[in-house]
Amino acid sequence: MADEKEFPRFACGGWEDGLFEVQDDVEIDTKYNGVCKHCSPVWIKTHECSDGSTYTEEVCTIPKVVVAYNEGGFSSTGVCLFCILEAAKSLGVKADD
Fold it and tell me: Which end of the chain has fewer CB atoms at under 10 Å, N or C?
C-alpha cells in the first residue's frame, strides 16, 4: 500500500487482533482495488523491471486509509476513512454511541 513510512498503530475492537493504523495518501492499482469518490484522478504509473523492461498500471491516491493488520503483522485490508465516516453518518451512528 503506502511507502515504508511509519504510521502510529492503535488498538480497537475487531478482527485481525484489533490492530489498525491510518495511512495518508495511499496509491492503489485501480485494476485490482476498489476506487471510491475520494480517490484522486487516475493516472498512469510506469515501473522499471530489473531486466530493463517496463510495465504500466493505472493508479490513484486515497487521501486516508484505515489499514488492518493480521496476526503476522502484515496489512490485510484497507478501507477509505472518508467512506467509513460517510457510511456511519448514513446509518445514524455518532462517535459517542
Answer: C
The domain tally of the chain equals 1
Are 80 and 62 in contact, with CB atoms under 8 Å apart?
A: yes
CA distance 82 to 87: 9
Question: pLDDT tens string for the chain (97 positions)?
Answer: 445 566 666 667 666 567 888 999 999 999 888 899 999 999 999 999 999 999 999 999 999 999 888 777 777 788 999 999 999 999 998 877 6
User: Is residue 75 a contact partner of residue 1, using CB atoms and an 8 Å limit?
Assistant: yes
Give the predicted TM-score (pTM) of the model.
0.75
Q: Is 33 exposed, middle or buried (0-12, 13-18, 19+ CB in 10 A)?
A: middle
Beta partners for residue 55, in sequence order: 47
Q: Which amino acid is at 6?
A: E
Q: Which domain holds residue 75?
A: 9-84
What does the alpha-carbon distance between residue 74 and residue 9 come to, in Å, rounded to a whole number?
Answer: 12
